[in-house]
Amino acid sequence: MTAQPLWIVIAAYNEATVIAGVIASVRGAGYRVVVVDDGSRDDTANVAESAGAVVMRHPINLGQGAALQTGIEYALAEGAETIVTFDADGQHRISDVAVMTAALAQHKADFALGSRFLGDTLNQPLSRRLTLKAATLFTRLTVGINITDTHNGLRAMTRRGAQSIKLRQNRMAHASEILHQVAQSGLKYIEVPVTIEYSAYSLAKGQKLSDALTILLDLFARRLHR
């Protein structure tokens, strides 16, 4: 098997209207991409496959954490030396991938975590900014990791870093779980400024403050009862 040094992993659920454009940007930059269709009720899987992605399918919706774990395991099996997680809704800029992977090498880190608060946001409502700030504060207090943006889906990791990630929280709590595992791994992590561009589509799919806090409280409670 010939190793593919960098793979983009995209978890997708009912993203048929936007996924082709996201994949086109990834493929246009020369990256291999695996899309994990997480039990979508629309044509996400077929659209992604037609756009040139490798597609893996969950027969039922397990949540973004489970989909990312499936994609990470696939990329590792394909020989990936670097893995980047990338959102399916068009919020991320493909140009930031090169910035993050360069930062991994420059800082000899195993994780590069994207931060919109060190970088830039376009069309972000104040309510969304406050939601993310509150979720970041709560995650920092409960997880014990000192970063500025705890719910950013743009992350780059080395093969060694990816092998330390074993997501068990199968729904949106995976964002905090990843950070907990990064902290527990003892491997070096850095934050990298990135740009997040909000659209009416991505905002409609986003979380409310109550949703984010419920997820974090559930994650915290599970840890206490281990």
What does this protein structure show overall?
- The chain has one domain (6-224): Spore Coat Polysaccharide Biosynthesis Protein SpsA, Chain A.
- Helix 5 packs parallel to helix 9 (209-224).
- The model has no long low-confidence stretch (mean pLDDT 85).
- The protein contains 9 helices and 7 strands.
- The chain has helices spanning 19-28, 44-50, 64-77, 95-107, 126-143, 159-163, 174-185, 200-205, 209-224; strands at 6-12, 32-38, 54-58, 82-85, 111-122, 155-158, 189-197.
- The longest helix has 18 residues, at 126-143.
- The protein is 45% helix and 21% strand.
- Helix 1 links the parallel strand 1 (6-12) and strand 2.
- It has 226 residues and is of the alpha/beta class.
- It has a 7-stranded mixed sheet with strand order 3-2-1-4-6-5-7, with helices on both faces.
* Whole-angstrom Rg: 16 Å
- How many domain modules? 1
Give the CATH superfamily.
Answer: Spore Coat Polysaccharide Biosynthesis Protein SpsA, Chain A
Strand content: 15-25%
The share of residues in helices is: 40-55%
Principal-axes shape call: globular
CATH class: Alpha Beta
Provide the CATH architecture: Alpha-Beta Complex
Strand order of the largest sheet: 3-2-1-4-6-5-7
Count the helices. How many?
9
The stretches of 5 or more residues where confidence is low (pLDDT under 50) are none
Question: In this structure, how is the largest beta sheet organized?
Answer: 7 strands, mixed
Number of beta strands: 7
